[in-house]
Amino acid sequence: MDFTLVNLALVAIGGAIGAVLRFSVGQVVDSSQFPWATIAVNVIGSFLLALLSFSYTGISIETRLFLFTGLFGAFTTMSTFSLETTQMLFDGRTLNACLNIVLNVGLCVGGAVLGKYASALLA
Predict the structure, then answer these.
(1) N-terminal to C-terminal alpha carbon distance within the chain
(2) How far is it, in rounded angstroms, from Cα 71 to Cα 76?
(3) Which of 45, 58, 62, 94 is the most exposed place for a label (fewest CB within 10 A)?
């Protein structure tokens, strides 16, 4: 894959869309007591990434850059998950931190598994 202005633009445009979608979920999902918005975007992103990856094996490199690197890269948020978990640990909310880890990992992998199975329905 070449580092070209077209590829860079595809990642940037996808990233801009993903970031706006991520922000929108954060506005709709109440995370005042627990980081539900972060879990939601990570699970949705895991499901959709797996669904598209397994359903459409002939996806062009340009589409992969736009969707997988740009849109899903900006939409899902491992760094926010890590920061929120660390903050809970330092605030003495160890149970919530552990729950956050279990839910993010378990539900995201579950979302990817469901995406894989859903892709079979599209075949």
Answers:
(1) 28
(2) 9
(3) 58
Walk along the chain (123 residues) in steps of 10 and give the mean pLDDT of each run.
90 97 97 95 91 86 93 90 92 97 95 93 84
Question: 52: which DSSP letter?
Answer: H
The whole domain housing 66 covers 5-122
Q: Amino acid identity of 59? A: I
How many angstroms separate the CA atoms of 105 and 4, rounded? Answer: 34
| Number of compact structural domains in the chain | 1
Residue labelled with tokens 């991520």 = 22
- Give one DSSP letter per residue of 35-90, joined into a string: -HHHHHHHHHHHHHHHHHHHH-TT--HHHHIIIIIIIHHHHS-HHHHHHHHHHHHH
